[in-house]
Specification:
Elements: E1 4-7, E2 10-13, E3 16-17, H1 18-25, E4 29-33, H2 34-47, E5 53-58, H3 65-73, E6 77-80, H4 83-91, E7 99-101, H5 108-116, E8 121-124, H6 127-140, E9 145-149, H7 175-185, E10 192-197, H8 208-226, E11 233-235, H9 252-263, E12 269-272, H10 276-279, E13 283-295, E14 298-303, H11 312-316, E15 322-324, E16 346-351, E17 360-367, E18 375-378, E19 399-404, E20 407-412, H12 417-421
Parallel strand pairs: 4-19, 5-6, 5-12, 6-7, 7-8, 8-9, 9-10, 10-11, 11-12, 14-16
Antiparallel strand pairs: 1-2, 2-3, 4-13, 13-14, 13-18, 15-18, 16-17, 19-20
Helix pairs in contact: 2-9, 5-6, 7-8, 8-9
The structure holds pyridoxal-5'-phosphate.
Pyridoxal-5'-phosphate binds at residues 58, 60-61, 79, 81, 102, 199, 202, 237-240, 273-277, 383.
């Protein structure tokens, strides 16, 4: 559920007309709905309220500091994967003690910054990384909390690039090795190894892999506790589904219904790292049609946004529902689905201006007839949209706008030509 809806054929973000935003800030533009972010967060908070739960919103999914700020105010912690993301969290006034730091390749400066900030947990992916943390923590006289990333070897059905919970990945250690790591480091004076972290991947649409992961991890927790180790928290990572198509994924309540009963009596804190399930449909990318072109049997709608602005279709073959910001009544979509049928619609490719065959947003997609100057909304673009954007083809990154009720504000300016060369002197 989100707050991007058509009223009399015109698309609104909450109570602001999308056209109005485009007129004032230009295109392409990322438009976020604050109410949608907060609504998703609240639903997760409620769904897991029977457990001691910390929600650590994944900064890499959509990390503008203005967004992190209201998320922190609404009670969210943060999941970070770099020193830059830690900097963002601190700039936004986020609580470092509610911050968890994941990633297979943390550098020494990044680890030192996180030690300085007294973050909640270092999510450690290998013995080598743990050794390094022990060395650096010793130098700073800190004793950080550590969660060991364990790979439960469950098959999370998604694009191969997005799967991280199988044995053959660079992420985490397997269950047998986890026992050894706790045996070797469980009472290390320089670090407090006291939690287990799991992150299965992203882009799945089912609850089962989570249930299966918890069912595989709980015996490990029991075993570790039986050996005298403390396991105070289970971090279940992120990857909960987002509605790229209407109603296609389980709700927070449905995930919780599978997960909470398993953990209820385990005296364990739960940490969740949702990214796209919070921010994906909290944002759209708005782009303007430049040209219509025919090529063979195809019709191309060429727009002013490119793969540098939103790379998910090119990178993952991701589906984004695309629809004009203004349509006749008969073209108001009831659902945002792949298999939408509509009389009078055309089948087109929506492509960008970049010199790459991979620069497309949709192929063989139905769209109401469009012409030069029309605005198209690329829906569910809040996650891994702006954060994965680049300056390829010397294109300034898009402007970001936050809508709150009747109002909107620019939360990141459009990059200028000067910005593009500023560091090249
Ligand atoms: C990317 C990532 C997340 C967030 O994934 P979503 O699919 O956006 O929910 C959470 N935890 C870790 C460790 C990640 O790498």
């Amino acid at each position: 559920m989100d707050y991007f809806n058509y009223k009399n054929g015109t698309l609104f973000a909450e109570n602001v007309s999308i056209e109005n935003i485009a007129d004032q800030v230009g295109t392409p533009v990322y438009i976020y709905s604050k109410a949608t972010f907060k609504d998703h967060l609240l639903k997760i908070q409620r769904a897991y309220s029977r457990l001691d739960t910390t929600i650590c919103y994944s900064v890499k999914a959509c990390g503008n500091i203005n967004i992190l700020k209201f998320m922190a105010e609404a009670g969210s912690g943060f999941d970070i994967v770099s020193g830059g993301e830690l900097y963002r969290v601190l700039q936004a006034g986020g609580d470092p003690s509610q911050t968890v730091f994941a990633g297979v390749g943390k550098t020494d400066p990044e680890i030192q910054e996180a030690l300085d900030a007294d973050i909640g947990y270092f999510n450690i992916e290998s013995e080598a990384e743990l050794e390094n943390l022990i060395r650096l923590a010793g130098q700073q006289g800190k004793r950080p909390k550590v969660a060991l990333r364990v790979n439960p070897d469950v098959d999370y059905k998604t694009h191969a690039f997005l799967r991280t919970g199988k044995k053959e990945t660079k992420f985490g250690v397997d269950i047998e090795r986890a026992v050894k790591v706790f045996a070797d480091y469980g009472d290390n004076p320089a670090v407090n190894l006291c939690a287990v972290h799991v992150h299965l991947g992203t882009g799945g649409k089912k609850i089962d892999p989570y249930v299966e992961a918890v069912e595989k991890i709980l015996p490990l927790v029991d075993r570790l506790r039986g050996q005298g180790h403390t396991v105070e928290a289970l971090d279940l990572g992120g990857g909960y589904g987002a509605d790229y198509e209407s109603g296609s994924v389980p709700s927070a309540t449905e995930y919780a219904a599978g997960i909470v009963p398993l953990l209820k009596d385990k005296k364990i804190k739960l940490i969740l790292e949702p990214g796209k399930s919070i921010c994906a449909n909290a944002g759209i990318m708005l782009t303007r049609v430049l040209y219509i072109k025919r090529g063979g049997s195809k019709k191309f709608v060429i727009v002013d946004a490119g793969m540098n602005d939103l790379i998910r279709p090119s990178l993952y073959d991701a589906f984004h529902f695309i629809w004009p910001a203004k349509v006749d009544d008969k073209f108001v979509p009831e659902k945002r689905n792949k298999d939408l049928q509509m009389d009078g619609a055309e089948v087109v490719d929506v492509v960008g201006p970049i010199c790459e065959g991979a620069d497309f947003f949709a192929k063989d997609r139905i769209l109401p007839p469009t012409k030069r100057g029309d605005l198209l909304s690329v829906f569910t673009a809040g996650a891994y949209g702006f954060t994965m954007s680049s300056n390829y083809n010397a294109r300034g990154r898009a402007v970001e706008v936050l809508v709150d009720g009747e109002n909107f504000s620019v939360i990141r300016k459009r990059e200028t030509y000067e910005d593009l060369t500023a560091l090249e002197k």
